[in-house]
Write a structure and sequence with these properties.
Blueprint: H1 2-52, H2 61-73, H3 75-84, H4 89-109, H5 120-153, H6 157-176, H7 180-201, H8 221-242, H9 250-274, H10 276-292, H11 298-310, H12 312-322, H13 327-346, H14 350-357
Helix pairs in contact: 1-4, 1-5, 1-6, 1-7, 2-5, 2-13, 3-5, 3-13, 4-5, 4-7, 5-6, 5-13, 6-9, 6-12, 8-11, 8-12, 8-13, 9-10, 9-11, 10-11, 12-13
Length: 358
């Protein structure tokens, strides 16, 4: 009897190890597919916006502002919705549908055969409708991906970094090489990968998919969330401040996108290897030194941007940990926090310009 019990114990451990490995492999696949989707979604959105405003018939500011407001500032709401949904795959499907409608709207709006009979206000409305569809599709995708990556990886900081990293390079590729062929290729890739992602995200729950969704939080937790949001806004400001006053050529835009992507990706691995506080200290001190000497050489500036972006998975990890079970809301709040920092850095305020030039 002792021998049988002993063998059963080891058999159970073997089954547990096998199940854990299968869950780990599924998590890696889902993270990889979600990261590729992030690249394609952001690339499609910027590519589509560029194509619909390329004729210069209206001020391009309005469509871009509309898109950014909906894509970023609605994420706390869509993130809250993601936390409430039981069948989260519907959010990804809704995102793909909205992005598809946006591409169709852009194609109709910019059709040269309709240019002569289309009234001017029809073009404007078409461009704004495209921006609205893109913004809402982008918002839904980001909170779906952030939520799925967090719960399936057990809030693994490396997985968080990989997921958030690829969007920056997608923006660079979509903006620099904007064309109708690229736009349709992006859309086709999104459709194929979305089906693959649904297969992984609706499969058997992994060991790490056991997040409690009815947790009680102490009142002070939201003060820490606000503090993290301020840190994110400051990081957004710092990232833009690095490149203020620099003429961004095609090559530089691609390099900046690649460096931002690699920084976000590397940040999770550094934090996992060195520990969060040691790696954060390295990132912050290094970024400050690089900011001071950013005019010495472009390599210094790029190193600073790399280090600034390394902090992104850390803040997301903190937010997910503080409000565990509300990863969609956490992702949305931090995404919305990017806008104030970006606006502060890009506004033509003499005091800010003077500070950054000194």
């Amino acid at each position: 009897m002792f021998t049988c019990a002993f063998l059963r114990t080891f058999a159970a451990k073997d089954d547990e190890t096998t199940m854990f490995q299968l869950c780990r492999n599924e998590c890696i696949r889902l993270t990889g597919v979600s990261a590729l989707l992030h690249f394609l979604v952001d690339g499609l959105c910027i590519c589509c916006l560029y194509l619909t405003t390329a004729d210069g018939s209206i001020d391009i500011v309005l469509p871009f502002v509309t898109y950014n407001v909906l894509a970023f500032l609605t994420q706390p709401l869509t993130g809250w919705w993601a936390d409430k949904m039981q069948q989260k795959h519907w959010m990804l499907l809704a995102s793909v549908l909205l992005l598809t409608l946006a591409v169709l709207m852009a194609s109709v709006t910019t059709n040269s055969q309709l240019a002569e009979i289309r009234p001017a206000h029809g073009l404007v409305n078409g461009q704004l409708s495209t921006a609205v569809l893109l913004g809402m599709g982008n918002s839904l995708f980001h909170v779906w991906g952030g939520k799925q990556t967090a719960i399936r990886s057990g809030n693994d900081i490396r997985a968080l970094g990989v997921f958030v990293s690829t969007g920056a390079f997608g923006l660079a590729i979509g903006g620099v090489f904007a064309s109708w062929f690229l736009l349709y290729a992006f859309l086709l890739g999104i459709g194929v990968l979305a089906v693959t992602a649904l297969k992984f995200s609706t499969g058997n729950a992994s060991y790490n998919d056991q997040y409690p969704h009815d947790m009680k939080y102490w009142e002070g937790v939201w003060y820490f969330i606000v503090l993290i949001m301020l840190i994110v806004a400051g990081r957004s400001f710092a990232g833009e401040a690095y490149t203020t006053g620099i003429t961004k050529s095609t090559t530089l835009l691609l390099v900046l996108g690649a460096v931002s992507m690699l920084g976000k990706m590397a940040g999770g691995w550094l934090a996992k290897g060195l520990g969060i506080w040691k790696s954060l200290l390295l990132m912050v001190v290094g970024a400050i030194i690089c900011f001071i000497g950013r005019n010495l050489h472009i390599a210094v500036m790029l190193t600073g941007i790399f280090l600034v972006n390394c902090t992104m998975p850390i803040t997301l990890y903190w937010a997910n940990t503080l409000i565990r079970g509300k990863e969609g809301l956490a992702f949305g709040l931090l995404a919305a926090s990017l806008i104030p920092g970006y606006l502060l850095a890009t506004l033509d305020l003499s005091a800010i310009r003077l500070w950054m030039d000194n």
